[in-house]
Amino acid sequence: MSHYLDKEQLLHLSPNKRAWMRFRNNRRGYYSLWIFSLLLFISLFAELISNDQPLIIQFEQEYYFPLLNDYPETTFGGDFVTKTDYNDPYIREKITAKGNWAIYPLNNYRYDSINYFAELPNPARPSVQNLLGTDDRGRDVLARLIYGFRLSVLFALILTAIGVVVGIIVGSIQGYFVGKVDLVTQRLIEIWGSMPELYLLIIFASIFKPSISLLIVLLSLFGWMGLSDYVRAEFLRGRNLDYVLAARSIGVPNIGIMFKHLLPNSMVPVLTFLPFRISGAILALTSLDYLGLGVRPSTPSLGELLSQGKENIDAWWLSMTTFGVLVGTLVLLIFIGEALREALDTRRG
Amino acid sequence: MNDNNTILEINDLSVNFDTLAGSVNVVRDINFSVNSGETMALVGESGSGKSVTAMSILRLHDEEKVNYSTGSIFFKGQNLLGIDESQIKQVRGSDISMIFQEPMTSLNPTFTVGDQIMEPLRIHKGMSKSAAKKRAIELMELTGIPDPQNRFDAYPHLLSGGQRQRMMISMALACDPKLLIADEPTTALDVTVQLQILLLLEKLQKEFSMAVLMITHDLNLVKRFADQVCVMQEGNIVEQGDVGPLFEQPQHPYTIKLLNSEPARIIPQGESQAVQQHDELLRGQDLKCYFSTKSGLFRRTTSTVKAVDDINLFLKEGETLGIVGESGSGKSTLGRCLLRLENCSGDIYFNEQQIDQLKHSALRPLRKEFQVVFQDPYSSLSPRMTIEQIVGEGLQIHFPELGKAQRREKIQKVLLEVGLEDDILWRYPHEFSGGQRQRIAIARVVILEPKLILLDEPTSALDVSVQKQVLALLRELQERYKMSYLFITHDLKVIEAVAHRIMVMKDGKIVETGETNEIFTEPKETYTRNLLTASLFKTVS
Fold this sequence. Notes:
The complex is a heterodimer. Chain A has 15 helices and 3 strands.
């Protein structure tokens, strides 16, 4: 299947559509985008794929939905009034006995469910029960990887989005108004940029209860600076072009010139850096978690798994699998980034 | 054709480029030859394949994308398309050398000009540093650079455009080439400098007895300086032969069309006088616009460029005032000052209202009355907006009461008026040719029905045949809407065609102003006379 168009068709495409054509012609990047989107989409439904509760139970002619409601064990003929542990072999037997059935998710553990019935000491090597083994607290590694991937990618997407918005706003103000505004902002950015980010994180981690939202706020405070420089440069170049002068002479107000005329023509560096910023953010979260400055240990996080892998160096299933997920994600993002860079290079036709 | 005198022979050459849309055929089966000591001109409009042909001779195209499907290029009996990369490097800059259109960018700004002239001497002739320097200074002297000893260590930014082009020529001549390829060598230069450079090339050609392959779009230049000419259109040579007979009796319809596209006066006689009785639309008094460079610890002004220096002018309703001058004369700055796109001092009255003190917000509603069309239709249309967005933008701002349907109706009407189709609303600027883009730019301003349009070199980026159409369109619109034009240009032929009155500028001052015919027939100032001589090639002996 070829994506070549004839010259006439190509001519009628908007610049964005032409860029998309070029992107599609880079097969590696195009497939990477598909795989990455698919993985992200699947991981959004992690609760249905990897959970310690069955999706649906039919027990004595009645339907139960453990994902939506909590049922005490006594419902299914157990002895306790506490919440049912559906991985308990005794309960399992009850709800799958004659006439009853239950649909379990593909992987029978949530990121925080502990396998109390493991036959091996923790961390346990991969087995039929725990496909990728357990960590040193008996939690299923596969479940933690699935949830950890989702958390990392969503975290990175939010962080990147905030960084891009702030970077574009600051950069465009600097690049459009130049002069004193630019001078003062640039100096402020330099001062702000020379603050020791890691120390601040350590200090804040000890003052506040560590959480994902705190990390997003802290990393966003610094994350926009690299981008604002590129947007500023694009605006500086663009503001002298004739179409901007033409817009001014028609009487378009500043805000209109900035966002209707200059911004669409300044998006190339922003888009090109996007995948690399996302991969950078994933790495940032991972390394902070690895150092223990990130999220709470109960949160599924790739960095926390890595640090467990370091503690238990002989438990290869901890470090190797996490490493695999991280490398896979970053490689996909880099391939997408490469293809984007080529796609946005207008010299390629 | 194949006598001993032939130095370059091109047989059945076709050039293709690989693009996203597949292979594109740019040059088709062309044949021509150049004799030593002779000047061959390749003439054609943009996109005709003339530069592609010239660059193929030195194989300067991106080897990965270019594909010479048929043909051969024989230079002194050797097929340049058949030899490998290291051999072609021997030919480049020694037997065949090239000068380019843009002297501002074809010299490396980080090396002194001396170093750059010495480079081919050191590479191809293996000269020692001192010998190369001696030869370089000789060459600089030969190309008419004053004080070559001192200029040798100068960096390119210190030199004017004409001097840089002289440096390029010195560099090209360094190894006594047999063939000099000149790709639009004077297009980027002012007319008076252009003439000097062309005369210099002619003199050097005789001294070095070399062949010159001149690529140009300027027919007057060909008529004056070339021996042979090939007329190119869309990759084909449609006609070739000796310059004299070919210009006397062109055979091919395209050649005839090219020769007829010289702009001719489209203002009826007597209108220039009649228009002076109209009311005054614009008046500028004591306009001054200085740019100063500041340096040092206390930001003292070290030098001042007087771009516009104490200028008074007026413009009547329905009148076209031509502002003529070479680059750096301040004509564009003056235009921008008058429209308040540049800060300046002095009084500006528009329609008897003083506008020079108005704040930008107070000025905005007035903006629809005075509009601008820029020189380069490629950079004056935002590449990521559709034609509807571009043309309709002004309506949205100045006539917000119009609904979407009404706005579209107006846009379609104006597109038809400027000679475009009305079904192009969804398309993007890159789909159009230069002439069509300029029509779009004109539509964008005419839709607001302004009283005044500043035309800043509106035709200089266009091909000659298109240029004439655009001028006719502007004239038609002027008659229909009774608009006044401030027409800024360096091209005297264009201004002769459309202006009622002319103002000649030099170094920010007015040299001479008067009715168009008067200026052209009996100029009072020497500067005006020189300008006329140089730009029309007519009285060159």
